[in-house]
Amino acid sequence: MPKTALIEHRPWLLASVIAACAYYFLWNNPIGELYLIILKGAGVGLLAVYAFRRTSGIDGAILVVALALSAAADMVLVLDMRAGGALFAASHLAAILLYLRNRRETTSASQKMLAIVLLIGAPAISYLVSQDPLIAIYAVTLGAMAAAAWISRFPRYRVGIGAVLFVVSDWLIFSELGPIDLSPLPSILIWPLYFAGQLMIATGVVQTLRGERPTK
């Protein structure tokens, strides 16, 4: 990557990681709910800025929308879980559109099988751990997002795994609402898994889209 690109764009990734780490260590501190909500949204919000600065065209715009919706969902979720869930579902729908527009030309039988497992398993396990039909309905979009990411042409070991980390993070959230007690894992792992997944997705998609742009 040219030095000018490093100077102009890499700081958005660094700022995103700093904001996410700060939220992880401060979320239960009495520094003010509003500040924590803003800090929480800044993690993925800055990834959206990074994607906006580094991509162009329809696919780049869809990525930015998906990340921006997730950032909004992160903040709204603190105040209203259903509204936050609706925003996350919208984010998943945008991501599904992006991945389906960029399907891999050839997909092996094992890759297709794993996509099916994600599509079915995400809502099934979400219901198992939460015992909530509404969460299972939301998780249909979650599973479809992960399945579509896995069969997309984006780097599977970055974007695909990032989507799987997103799913696991949500499962841990849902476990706090149901009869299965997994503590202390949710409080320790939810945010790192979620943000790592979003970071992998954002950088993987941007890297691929940037590779298609003519060199200036």
Automatic annotation (TrEMBL):
UniProt topology in membrane: Multi-pass membrane protein
Name the UniProt key words of this record, in alphabetical order. Answer: Membrane, Transmembrane, Transmembrane helix
GO MF, one term, reads: hydrolase activity
For this UniProt entry, what is the primary localization, expressed as one broad class? Answer: membrane
Gene Ontology CC annotation, any one: membrane
Keyword Transmembrane set for record? yes
Q: Which residues cross the membrane?
A: 12-28, 34-53, 60-79, 85-101, 113-129, 135-152, 159-177, 189-209
The organism's place on the tree of life at top rank: Bacteria
Compartments in which it is found: Membrane
- Family, per the entry? Belongs to the TMEM86 family.
- The protein here is known as Lysoplasmalogenase
Species name for this entry?
Answer: Erythrobacter insulae
Its taxonomic placement starts with: Bacteria, Pseudomonadati, Pseudomonadota, Alphaproteobacteria, Sphingomonadales
